């Protein structure tokens, strides 16, 4: 309230009884007594001087004091004295890093873990995803585990990380970055066929679990609010994925993982079959197995009849819809750090007949954490063709090339005839050209006819097609189809013998 | 005014007194900064080389603080740090190979005896990191302040006595029991909840402080007040993945009228067929506990295997369950995922469950019945 208004109303802010003593209105001017400071100026100056000199002398005499006194005086501006002080005590209150639903506003640190093995070819893609993440980069700590890699993964990773941290854009560099090297002596090869073969699964998954645990235990800090597991071979994922998953405020959350397929395989396919709900059948099955057995999903050997997250996807469904899960897949997991702090990890042994990420899901459920999947929020895993697919693709590629060559030859011929017809100067040559063409055609026909006798007509067609047009292009290659012919003849011979 | 004029003529005594006061004031300002925030002092080069590259980097190493901007970013982007865990060893010759030890202690109460004992350990202190987890209770606050005092004294003391780093955590969940008195603590029906919460505390401590450079983890309870000085060397020399000495309690024996020792930790045992049969009858959520008459397990307890008359401290036996009062574990065992189950794991929780899990991961578990702490 305004004091002047109070006076205008007839009330005073202070009691009037003690007119002289309590009145604050200055009735008469009184010169303020000179402050003591000004009066004893000289004395104070002298004291300061002497104090300064004695302080300086003391610092000279006891060098050990400098470390504690200088930074305090310079208010940390003298960074040169930094190396003199080593801190040994860290204090953290875990209650302050519980992991909140809007971590990007609350400054929650996220640990992003990525296990890598022979993944050099995926790294450029992975780093482009990293750069695009919208979560504040300085709050993300990156952790990589490079194990048993024979390719350039390690060198490439380090170079790309250095580049990332040196980026002039202030928003680009990430927080703490740890690259951990540890070989587990994995015998299992990394190509798709051997990786997903049924027999190899249990052992492979236990080793994967081990790798994940090593990575986590070496890099989890008391400052982390969330932990995000991400595989390097994710093709596309929303750049807001961290915020999107975090927003749900669940202890463990996974998106749906699909993969694109070539058109001849149906265009797309559910990829991650490790996210599922437990079923009665599976529980009954688990009881029949021995202690060390591991149930792996998606193989005919273990028919579990579990509802899978992957199959429930509706491309037009609500991306925020949630679904309770028991097992989770490891392509992209967001979990609160307190889940890991409580001791949930990726069992490298058979935990309730499951290992690795599925065991992780089970253990998290066991300890009372919520495990949730988003069926309609999809990220896309890289499509790696299997050996069969590769064979098929090779054939398709061959056919395509043959077709292209045919088209090219067709176009060439058309052009040639066109030019010959259009050019009036060489009109005389046209006849020659026709003659040459017809001769070539005859030759081709000669080459082709014996091969037509080959037992497999389809393949022979493609082969002859190829041979035919090679002949057209380069005459040096002539012997090759002849060899084929000989082989074909030999085949015929053996057949007749039979 | 006359008085002031007199004052102006200052005698040398006043000046000397004033400068003394200024000096004393400065001393007061700088000599005792608050302990947990900055315990700093000069150190030799050997220690400097051993610091972490960045304040965020491994918690088992000391660090040099770096300026942080207002928005929480570091002025310099953190470096890319490489760790080669293939080169990390945990061998019987720990001190010569400069293997780092992490001593972890869930702290509910601070005992000066505990700190003195840790300080006396003869293993090179610059290779020892300490980790504490303290609950958010009144007792915890008291423990924290006395711990900080003890730390401040040690970490500013002689250089060879200083530990490499100390991490203090506050628990993010409440302990189920308000009272930490021995009687309340050991009641059977309270045991499950208490031990599950203990497991979570232990796991929080272990997973956040392990870091990439630790070779061995020593679990030491806050009420261990007497161990041989060479505890770490002795336990590592056996080169076993998990090894536990025999924990005893000193007490005044009223029968013989003299000081005596008695077994204390009943969690180290060899499994019995009775216990397994008993375990099979339990529901999945129930746990089997040792040392309670309600649950006769007939397990062979290491506590009673001790030969107090003529002890052979090198004697090693195989165990199935371990206690957590003093427990030496290779860091690899923890890294592989062996933790303290906070849920019934084969009807076992906490350290006993840990032993079971380590066994499931293919590690062996051992005890030293004649090595007393």
UniProtKB/TrEMBL annotation, chain A:
GO CC annotations, alphabetized: mannan polymerase complex
Localisation per UniProt entry: Golgi apparatus membrane
Membrane topology: Single-pass type II membrane protein
Entry's Gene Ontology molecular function annotations: alpha-1,6-mannosyltransferase activity
Transmembrane segments: 47-65
Keyword Transmembrane: yes
Bias (Basic and acidic residues) ranges: 396-428, 443-498
Stretches for region Disordered: 396-498
GO biological process: one example: cell wall mannoprotein biosynthetic process
Keywords: Golgi apparatus, Membrane, Signal-anchor, Transmembrane, Transmembrane helix
Gene3D superfamilies: Spore Coat Polysaccharide Biosynthesis Protein SpsA, Chain A
Main localization category: Golgi
Homology family: Belongs to the ANP1/MMN9/VAN1 family.
Protein name (Swiss-Prot/TrEMBL): Mannan polymerase II complex ANP1 subunit
Organism: Aspergillus mulundensis
From TrEMBL, chain B:
Pfam families the record matches: Anp1 (PF03452)
Keywords from the named record: Golgi apparatus, Membrane, Signal-anchor, Transmembrane, Transmembrane helix
GO molecular function: alpha-1,6-mannosyltransferase activity
Membrane-related topology note: Single-pass type II membrane protein
One GO cellular component term noted in the UniProt record for this chain: mannan polymerase complex
Compartments, record wording: Golgi apparatus membrane
GO terms under biological process: cell wall mannoprotein biosynthetic process; protein N-linked glycosylation
Bias (Pro residues) ranges: 56-65
Residue ranges of the region described as Disordered: 39-69
Family according to the record: Belongs to the ANP1/MMN9/VAN1 family.
Protein name: Mannan polymerase complex subunit MNN9
């Amino acid at each position: 309230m305004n004091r002047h208004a109070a006076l205008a109303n007839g009330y005073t802010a202070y009691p009037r009884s003690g007119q002289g003593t309590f009145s604050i209105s200055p009735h008469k001017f009184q010169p303020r007594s000179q402050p003591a400071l000004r009066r004893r100026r000289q004395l104070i100056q002298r004291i300061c001087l002497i104090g300064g000199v004695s302080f300086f002398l003391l610092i000279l005499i006891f060098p050990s004091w400098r470390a504690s006194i200088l930074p305090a005086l310079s208010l940390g501006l003298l960074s040169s004295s930094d190396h003199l002080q080593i801190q040994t005590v860290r204090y953290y209150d875990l209650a302050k890093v519980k992991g909140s639903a809007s971590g990007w506003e609350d400054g929650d640190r996220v640990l992003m873990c990525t296990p890598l093995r022979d993944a050099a070819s995926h790294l450029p893609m992975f780093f482009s995803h990293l750069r695009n993440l919208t979560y504040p980069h300085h709050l993300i700590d990156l952790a990589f585990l490079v194990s048993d890699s024979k390719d350039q993964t390690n060198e490439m990773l380090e170079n790309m990380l250095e580049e990332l941290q040196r980026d002039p854009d202030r928003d680009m560099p990430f927080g703490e970055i740890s690259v951990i090297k540890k070989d587990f002596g994995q015998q299992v090869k990394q190509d798709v066929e051997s990786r997903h073969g049924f027999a190899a699964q249990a052992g492979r998954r236990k080793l994967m679990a081990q790798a994940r645990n090593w990575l986590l235990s070496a890099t989890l800090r008391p400052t982390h609010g969330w932990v995000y597991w991400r595989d390097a071979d994710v093709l596309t994922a929303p750049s807001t994925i961290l915020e999107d998953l975090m927003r749900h405020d669940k202890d463990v959350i996974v998106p749906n993982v699909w993969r694109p397929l070539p058109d001849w395989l149906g265009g797309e396919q559910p990829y991650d079959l490790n996210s599922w709900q437990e079923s009665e059948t599976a529980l009954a099955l688990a009881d029949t197995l021995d202690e060390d057995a591991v149930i792996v999903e998606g193989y005919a050997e273990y028919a579990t009849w579990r509802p899978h997250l992957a199959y429930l996807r509706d491309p037009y469904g609500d991306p925020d819809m949630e679904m309770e899960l028991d097992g989770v897949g490891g392509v992209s997991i967001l979990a609160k750090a307190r889940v890991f702090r409580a001791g949930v990890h990726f069992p490298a042994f058979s935990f309730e007949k499951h290992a690795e990420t599925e065991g992780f899901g089970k253990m998290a459920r066991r300890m009372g954490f919520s495990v949730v999947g988003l069926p309609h929020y999809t990220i896309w895993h890289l499509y790696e063709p299997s050996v069969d697919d590769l064979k098929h693709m090779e054939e398709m590629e061959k056919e395509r090339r043959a077709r292209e060559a045919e088209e090219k030859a067709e176009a060439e011929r058309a052009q040639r005839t066109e030019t010959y017809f259009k050019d009036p100067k060489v009109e005389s040559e046209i006849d020659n050209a026709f003659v040459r063409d017809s001769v070539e055609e005859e030759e081709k026909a000669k080459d082709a006819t014996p091969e037509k006798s080959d037992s497999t007509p389809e393949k022979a067609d493609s082969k002859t097609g190829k041979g035919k047009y090679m002949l057209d292009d380069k005459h040096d290659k002539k012997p090759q189809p002849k060899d084929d012919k000989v082989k074909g003849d030999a085949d015929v011979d053996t057949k007749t013998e039979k | 005014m006359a008085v002031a004029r007199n004052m102006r003529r200052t005698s040398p005594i006043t000046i000397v007194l004033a400068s003394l006061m200024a000096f004393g004031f400065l001393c007061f300002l700088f000599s005792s900064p608050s302990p947990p925030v900055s315990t700093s002092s000069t150190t030799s080069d050997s220690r400097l080389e051993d610091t972490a590259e960045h304040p965020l980097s491994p918690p088992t190493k000391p660090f040099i603080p770096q300026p942080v901007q207002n928005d929480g970013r570091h002025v310099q982007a953190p470096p890319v740090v490489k760790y080669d865990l293939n080169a990390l060893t945990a061998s019987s010759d720990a001190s010569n190979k400069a293997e780092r030890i992490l001593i972890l202690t869930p702290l509910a109460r601070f005992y000066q005896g505990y700190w003195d004992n840790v300080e006396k350990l003869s293993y090179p202190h610059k290779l020892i990191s300490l980790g504490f987890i303290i609950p958010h209770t009144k007792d915890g606050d008291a423990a924290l302040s006395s711990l900080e005092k003890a730390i401040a004294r040690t970490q500013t003391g002689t250089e060879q006595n200083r530990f490499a780093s100390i991490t203090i955590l506050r628990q993010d969940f409440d302990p189920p029991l308000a009272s930490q008195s021995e009687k309340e603590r050991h009641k059977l029906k309270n045991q499950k909840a208490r031990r599950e919460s203990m497991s979570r505390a232990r796991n929080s401590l272990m997973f956040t402080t392990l870091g990439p450079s630790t070779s061995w983890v020593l679990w030491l309870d806050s009420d261990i007040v007497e161990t041989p000085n060479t505890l770490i060397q002795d336990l590592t020399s056996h080169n076993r993945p998990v090894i536990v000495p025999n924990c005893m309690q000193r007490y005044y024996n009223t029968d013989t009228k003299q000081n005596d020792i008695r077994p204390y930790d009943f969690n180290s045992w060899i499994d019995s067929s009775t216990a397994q049969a008993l375990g099979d009858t339990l529901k999945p959520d129930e746990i089997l506990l040792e040392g309670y008459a309600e649950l006769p397990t007939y397990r062979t307890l290491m506590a009673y295997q001790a030969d107090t008359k003529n002890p052979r401290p090198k004697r090693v036996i195989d165990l199935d369950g371990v206690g957590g009062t003093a427990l030496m574990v290779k860091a690899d065992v923890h890294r592989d995922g062996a933790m303290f189950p906070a849920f019934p794991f084969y009807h076992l929780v906490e350290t006993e469950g840990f032993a079971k899990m380590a066994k499931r991961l293919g590690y062996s578990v051992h005890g030293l019945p004649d090595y007393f702490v």
